[in-house]
Specification:
Length: about 280
């Protein structure tokens, strides 16, 4: 069956009725993969995971202005709708929800989601307001699409943690699934922003995953951070925003006595492109 493209709530309702998706018993379940488009192999792996979790998959494609700061790449963010639609069709997606900014945000809107203190640390410290914008659009997408399950990549680890927090704190009836980070064969984490990199910058950017893998070979926080930092310091052309070892649920520092899974996360600029990546390490 062809992908049904919906632009607003009415279109979504019609698509869901056509496909027999709904809350009534015997009706099909729906998994949502929220995206900003410019879909790559990483997004495709999210769609595949979504297909395992529900009868139908919806992909939303919306470049959310609310989550970009004034000096960030909102206007140059890649928009590749036709190619994205083909990728969704290839992956057996049933619905693509592609609203306009006007449909998503009324001129006189007043109410939005606050990401709280957790939204101001690590990534949030470098991108003020970013997680408020992410949570606001994700809550709106949840309300519009009303999925049973939503799938997010673990590459955006703090985003995933914040969404889990929102689901808990606001009692949202949705299961959140975190999908493993997809990487190129040489280790580079897949990202829509990789297409900004020149061949030389792409080579430089490999230091990020190399640093994380070097850290993941150690078991004590100081050593983990030291090994990762040494790789980054040995590479010119990288401007580091942060390298941290944190608790995956709270994004607070995993100190020397920390036990359990921790996230080693990095954010850096390579040329004018800002990249993030992380790995999970058992301590
Ligand atoms: O991860 C993304 O692509 C975006 O932050 C999301 C979750 C689609 C919200 O705009």
């Amino acid at each position: 069956m062809d992908v049904i493209v919906a632009g607003d709530r009415a279109g979504l309702l019609k698509a869901k009725r056509t496909l027999g998706i709904g809350a009534a018993s015997g009706e099909g379940t729906l998994a949502l993969v929220p995206t900003m488009g410019a879909l790559h192999k990483g997004h495709r792996s999210l769609m595949r995971l979504a297909r395992e979790r529900a009868d139908h998959v919806a992909v939303s494609i919306f470049v959310n202005p609310l989550q970009f700061g004034p000096n960030e790449d909102f206007s140059r963010y890649p928009r590749t709708f036709d190619v994205d639609l083909e990728a969704c069709a290839d992956e057996g997606v049933s619905i693509v929800f592609a609203p306009s900014a006007e449909d998503m945000y009324a001129q006189d809107r007043q109410v939005s989601v606050s990401a709280g203190k957790m939204g101001t640390v690590v990534e949030g410290a470098f991108r003020p307001g970013h997680f408020d914008g992410v949570l606001t659009v994700v809550l709106k997408l949840f309300n519009l699409v009303q999925p049973d399950v939503a799938v997010f990549g673990r590459k955006d680890a703090q985003q995933l943690a914040m969404i889990r927090r929102m689901v808990t704190d606001l009692n949202l009836p949705i299961s959140i699934v975190g999908a493993p980070t997809a990487r190129e064969a040489d280790g580079l984490a897949l990202s829509s922003r990789n297409r900004y990199l020149s061949p030389h910058e792409r080579h430089t950017a490999l230091a990020l995953s190399r640093a994380l893998f070097a850290g993941a070979e150690r078991r004590a926080p100081k050593e983990i951070l030291g090994a990762a930092r040494a790789v980054l310091e040995g590479e010119s052309g990288i401007s580091l925003d942060y390298l941290v070892l944190v608790d995956p649920a709270t994004f607070t520092e995993a100190g020397e006595d920390y036990e359990g899974e921790a996230i080693l996360a990095v954010a850096a600029r390579v040329g004018s492109t800002r990249l993030i990546d992380n790995v999970t390490i058992s301590l």
